[in-house]
Structure formats: structure tokens, C-alpha cells
């Protein structure tokens, strides 16, 4: 192995670009590529599979006086095109995040949005250093665009009004970062990038501030990551699967980012699979054709080998069960079993805790599956099964086996419902939730569970005897018996028809009869609420003998109902019903302390 200090052994840092869905991630990548191409040699920019490699010379050409290339011995930057929104940011490389450094794109007018918060969580969890690209500065009212200029030079050309409006938005973002626990400032004011996050105002449309972004990324990588960029250029290649794709003529292939060593055509590799690690042999290494040859029929050209860091498509037998986010290891001169164990160990770090009962979770990559599992754990939602891949018939079958109705659900993040599973889902008692934002997906599920529980409570509530205390009004006896008809005022609770009523003598409850009718202003009603005066018919008693005018009567609440009301439905009943219930329970419990418990 040669000495690690010579530049050949330093690999390109891997940069991931994250951010909310329409804040300009794609246009920023396009701008960086486009400016790089127009910097002269289209040949200098190499399009990798799932990544764009921008060499140092091109970067220093774009950054002008901001960069002195002799300060750097890193070869450039490798920008990853993130598949799916943030699934990528949790892709791993040997336990850490695959990206060495990240750009968090935030729309300067829009500030933090749900996916921004999510991306921040991931960056915090993986400890990935990042810079914030405050995009769309050109939409500031009255902005005077300076194509491709460094941002401070561009700011000199702006009116005071435009500059102060932009500053207001920038400080809003700095405040939001501080709320998220990160100390941040405009990048030219940051002394120590390890303690503070640099914010780079830019426009993906006009290219203003793009030179600054590249400068900050190069500077950060050079200062803080040089040790990590030291690799064994001849060692056995290691990488991470970005996506599994079917390609005509090749079958299932894996788009892979190689972050260490070298991968050669014909190498034996171990790839993380949905069931077991896959041991296979590379048939072809494919890279996109150079930009100038794009007209040719074939999209890819075969290469003999790739060294880190690079994006490459690997064609090999048996890759159809490979998993996005899983490790790829070249075996080279080690026992294959050792490499299989290594891959298993790395996958085991991502194991999701499953329970006897719970929901089924499907996600597009291992990283997003892990993020889902973390978020569900926080929300206290148990998981029955969690897997990478689209929703298939067997997922529906598994979800149907859940014991609790609310667990008969599938939560799919960034995945599709396979055609052969559609009819299964229609006929199954399983609810499907899909979304591209993890926390929204979980919120949708939680809302569904709450509604389901509320509906169940309402059915219980309909059947439960409601507590009530009411008084027979003086001079309001309309009939003495068969049935007795009297005017009453409801003191608290709800008087319902067809309920047993009675009175307390001391702590002893005596049943007087059953309500057989309630009339309010001459109309028959089913119930009367606290404060209302109604006339009621009671089968059983005689006024003047069993009950008297001025008596306080109670609805008789069966013990089982009292228990449900007190323990499960207390929040669902009104304050005056709670009052009637507690007075009723208090009196009952003077005789029997455990009544209704």
C-alpha cells in the first residue's frame, strides 16, 4: 500500500443534496452541472450513475478568485442525485451516513418546511456536516440579477431595499436553525465551521452564490475530512446500493456508490439482499456515455474498473432481491464467508424491532425503513413486519393477521402498490397509507386510529346509561299513577327515556320505577339536558305515596356502566354529567367503597 499522503489516495468527498420537495434541489444540481459544462471542457465533467463528479480545476474555474486550487489536494466533489426525497440521507457507509457532507436546500421565502425538518433530524442523527443553501434569492422583489457571480459581489449591485428584504428572510432561516439546535450564520461570518453552520445565499436559476457554495464545500472537506478521504486505492471495493433497476439486456442491476477501494469487472461481490446476502460475480460495470456521445443508441459504456468515489451500475446474476441502502463488498482475497458475515453484521444494525401485533411497514430503502421505525417508536406504534420494497399481496395477508383492528394497516413510504396486490387490498380488511413525508404518513395513521377509537366510544356511549339528577317541581303533578306524570327540572346530567329511576335514603338507593316518556313543551323527546324543565311519565310509583313533589330523583346507573363512564368515557361526557356521576358514585361508595371500580 502506498503512502496515504499522496493525492492519488484521497478520494472525492460525497455530497448529498437534501431539502423540501420544491425548494430547488434538482435545479441546483442542474445549475452546478450546467455551469461546470459551460466552464469549457464538457469532457471534464463525468456523469456517473446516480452521481456527478466535478473535478477541482472545474470548481476553481467556476469559483474564480474565491478558490486557490493549490490550497487543495482533494480531487473535487461527487454530487449524489438522491433517489426519493430523503431516503438517501440515511443510506449508510459502514455505520455512518454514505454522504460525507450535505447541502440542505431551503427556499429563502419559504423557510423550514416539513421535509426540511426531517432532513435536519437525519443530519443530526448521523452527525453529517452540512451547509445551508438559501435558494431563490433572485425572487426578492426588485432583485438585480448578476449571472454566476459570487453572492457578495451580487449583493453590492442590489438596492438597499432588496438587500434588507433578503436579510430579513436569511435571519429567519438562521433563527429556525437555532430552534433546531444549530448555531448558524452567513458563511462569510463563520469562524469555525465545526461549531457553526454556514448559510450560503444563492440562486439555482441565475447561478449567483453557486461559486460560494462550491468554495465552502471544498473548504469544509479539505479542512475536516481529509483523513476520512484517505482510501486504499487498490483495496477491495466497498459501496452502497442506491437503487435496484431492471435494464434491458442486463436484467436486475444495482446503481451503486463506491466509497472505498476499487471494483473490477469479474470481481466476486456480496450484496445485501431482502432475505440473505447475495453472492454473485460482476458481469459488467456500466457508466453513462460521455456527454458528447449521448446521441448513440446505447446509454451505457462498459468500463473495466472503478475506484472510489464513484457512481456505477453493476450488472450481475441474482440481483433482483438486492435492497436499496444495502452494502456492496468485493470479496477479492478473503474467504467469502467472512464477507457474508460482514454484510450481515452491517444489515443487523438496521434491524427493526417488531412486535407480536402491530402495523406492516414498507419503505423504498433501508435508510428510510430505519427512519420510519424510529419515528413509529417515538409515536408508540408497534410494528408487526418491516421490509424494503413495493407493497405486495403477502404484505396484505400479513396485515390481516393483526389482532387489533387499528393495526390492520400498511404504512408505505415512497413505495408503490404492485398491480397484483390491488384486488387483494380491495377485498381485505386492511387500510393502506402512503406518503413521501414520514411524519405526515404517521400523522395520517394516527388520525385514522383516533377516529376509529372515537367511533367505538360513540357506539359505547350510545348504549351506556347516562347519569342524571332531577327534581320534581312543586304543584306539577299531572297524574298520580299508571303512569305518574310530573314536571321536573334537570339539575345535572342527561335524563333519558326508558331508564330506571330512584332516590337515595341515606346511602341506600331505592328504585321508584321506569321512565316511559319525556315531553318538552308538549312534544315527545328522547332526553332532557341539565337546566331543562320537562314533564316525565314514570311507570310504577304513585305521587304522594312512593314519591313526593320536591323529591330529588336519580337515573339508576348499572355498576358496569358507571365503571365504563368513570374509566373510559370521562372525557367524552359533559361537565354536568361528570358532576352527576361523581355525586352518584360518592353516595354509592359510602356503602361499598369498591362499587363501580
Description:
The structure is a single chain. Helix content is 29%, strand content 30%. It contains 14 helices and 32 strands. It is an alpha+beta fold and 597 residues long. The chain folds into four domains: 223 residues, P-loop containing nucleotide triphosphate hydrolases (Rossmann fold); 112 residues, Elongation Factor Tu (Ef-tu), domain 3, CATH 2.40.30; 110 residues, Translation initiation factor IF- 2, domain 3 (Rossmann fold), CATH 3.40.50; 124 residues, Beta Barrel (Elongation Factor Tu (Ef-tu), domain 3), CATH 2.40.30.10. The N and C termini lie far apart (76 Å). The N terminus is likely disordered. α2 packs across α6 and α10 packs parallel to α11. The longest helix is centred in the last third of the chain and has 26 residues. The strands form six sheets. An eight-stranded mixed β-sheet has the order 2-3-4-1-7-8-10-9, sandwiched between helices. A hairpin with a 2-residue loop joins β27 and β28. 43% of the residues are buried.
Question: What is the topological layout?
Answer:
Layout: E1 14-19, H1 25-38, E2 46-48, E3 51-55, H2 56-63, E4 76-80, E5 92-93, E6 96-97, E7 101-107, H3 114-126, E8 130-135, H4 151-156, H5 160-179, E9 184-186, E10 197-201, H6 210-224, H7 226-229, E11 238-247, E12 251-260, E13 262-264, E14 268-271, E15 278-281, E16 284-288, E17 300-303, E18 305-307, E19 310-315, E20 327-330, H8 336-348, E21 359-363, H9 366-378, E22 383-388, H10 393-400, E23 409-413, H11 419-427, E24 431-435, H12 438-463, E25 468-479, E26 484-496, E27 500-505, E28 508-520, E29 523-525, E30 527-529, E31 533-539, E32 552-555, H13 559-567, H14 575-591
Helix pairs in contact: 2-6, 10-11
Amino acid at each position: 500500500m502506498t503512502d496515504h499522503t499522496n493525492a492519488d489516495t484521497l478520494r472525492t468527498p460525497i455530497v448529498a443534496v437534501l431539502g423540501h420537495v420544491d425548494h430547488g434541489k434538482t435545479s441546483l444540481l442542474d445549475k452546478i452541472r450546467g455551469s461546470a459544462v459551460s466552464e469549457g471542457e464538457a469532457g471534464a465533467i463525468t456523469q456517473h450513475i446516480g452521481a456527478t463528479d466535478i473535478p477541482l480545476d472545474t470548481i476553481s474555474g467556476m469559483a474564480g478568485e474565491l478558490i486557490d486550487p493549490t490550497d487543495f489536494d482533494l480531487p473535487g466533489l461527487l454530487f449524489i442525485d438522491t433517489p426519493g426525497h430523503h431516503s438517501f440521507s440515511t443510506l449508510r457507509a459502514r455505520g455512518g451516513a454514505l454522504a460525507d457532507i450535505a447541502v440542505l436546500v431551503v427556499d429563502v421565502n419559504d423557510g423550514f418546511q416539513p421535509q426540511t425538518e426531517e432532513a435536519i433530524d437525519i443530519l443530526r442523527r448521523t452527525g453529517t456536516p452540512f451547509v445551508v443553501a438559501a435558494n431563490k434569492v433572485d425572487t426578492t422583489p426588485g432583485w438585480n440579477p448578476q449571472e454566476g457571480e459570487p453572492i457578495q459581489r451580487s449583493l453590492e449591485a442590489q438596492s438597499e431595499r432588496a438587500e434588507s428584504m433578503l436579510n430579513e428572510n436569511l435571519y429567519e432561516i438562521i433563527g429556525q436553525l437555532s430552534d433546531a439546535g444549530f448555531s448558524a450564520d452567513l458563511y462569510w461570518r463563520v469562524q469555525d465551521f465545526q461549531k457553526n453552520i454556514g448559510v450560503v445565499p444563492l440562486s439555482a436559476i441565475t447561478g449567483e452564490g453557486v461559486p460560494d457554495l462550491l468554495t465552502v464545500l471544498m473548504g469544509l472537506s479539505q479542512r475536516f475530512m481529509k483523513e476520512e478521504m484517505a482510501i486504499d486505492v487498490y483495496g477491495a471495493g466497498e459501496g452502497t446500493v442506491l437503487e435496484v433497476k431492471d435494464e434491458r439486456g442486463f436484467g436486475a442491476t444495482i446503481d451503486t456508490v463506491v466509497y472505498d477501494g476499487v471494483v473490477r469487472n469479474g470481481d466476486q461481490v456480496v450484496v445485501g439482499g431482502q432475505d440473505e446476502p447475495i453472492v454473485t460475480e460482476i458481469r459488467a460495470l456500466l457508466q453513462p456515455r460521455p456527454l458528447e456521445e449521448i446521441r448513440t443508441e446505447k446509454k451505457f459504456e462498459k468500463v473495466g474498473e472503478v475506484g472510489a468515489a464513484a457512481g456505477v451500475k453493476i450488472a450481475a446474476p441474482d440481483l433482483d432481491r438486492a435492497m436499496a441502502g444495502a452494502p456492496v463488498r468485493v470479496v477479492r482475497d478473503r474467504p467469502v464467508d467472512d464477507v457474508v458475515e460482514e454484510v450481515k453484521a452491517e444489515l443487523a444494525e438496521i434491524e427493526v424491532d417488531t412486535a407480536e401485533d402491530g402495523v406492516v411497514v414498507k419503505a423504498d430503502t433501508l435508510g428510510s425503513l430505519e427512519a420510519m421505525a424510529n419515528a413509529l417508536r417515538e409515536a408508540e406504534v408497534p410494528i408487526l413486519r418491516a421490509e424494503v420494497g413495493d407493497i405486495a399481496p403477502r404484505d396484505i395477508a400479513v396485515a390481516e393477521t393483526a389482532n387489533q383492528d387499528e393495526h390492520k394497516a400498511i404504512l408505505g413510504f415512497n413505495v408503490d402498490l404492485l398491480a397484483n396486490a390491488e384486488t387483494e387490498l380491495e377485498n381485505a380488511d386492511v387500510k393502506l397509507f402512503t406518503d413521501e413525508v414520514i411524519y405526515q404518513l404517521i400523522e395520517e395513521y394516527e388520525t385514522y386510529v383516533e377516529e376509529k377509537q372515537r367511533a367505538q366510544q360513540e357506539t359505547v356511549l350510545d348504549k351506556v346509561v347516562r347519569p342524571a339528577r332531577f327534581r320534581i317541581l312543586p304543584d306539577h303533578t299531572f297524574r298520580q299513577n299508571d303512569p305518574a306524570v310530573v314536571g321536573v327540572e334537570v339539575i345535572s346530567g342527561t335524563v333519558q327515556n326508558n331508564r330506571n329511576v330512584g332516590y337515595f335514603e341515606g346511602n341506600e338507593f331505592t328504585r321508584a320505577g321506569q321512565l316511559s316518556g319525556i315531553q318538552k313543551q308538549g312534544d315527545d323527546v328522547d332526553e332532557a339536558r341539565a337546566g331543562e324543565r320537562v314533564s316525565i311519565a314514570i311507570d310504577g310509583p304513585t305521587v304522594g305515596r312512593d314519591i313526593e313533589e320536591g323529591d330529588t330523583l336519580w337515573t339508576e346507573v348499572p355498576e358496569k356502566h358507571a365503571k365504563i363512564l368513570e374509566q373510559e368515557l370521562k372525557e367524552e361526557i359533559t361537565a354536568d354529567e361528570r358532576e352527576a356521576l361523581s355525586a352518584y358514585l360518592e353516595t354509592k361508595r359510602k356503602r361499598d367503597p369498591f362499587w363501580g371500580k
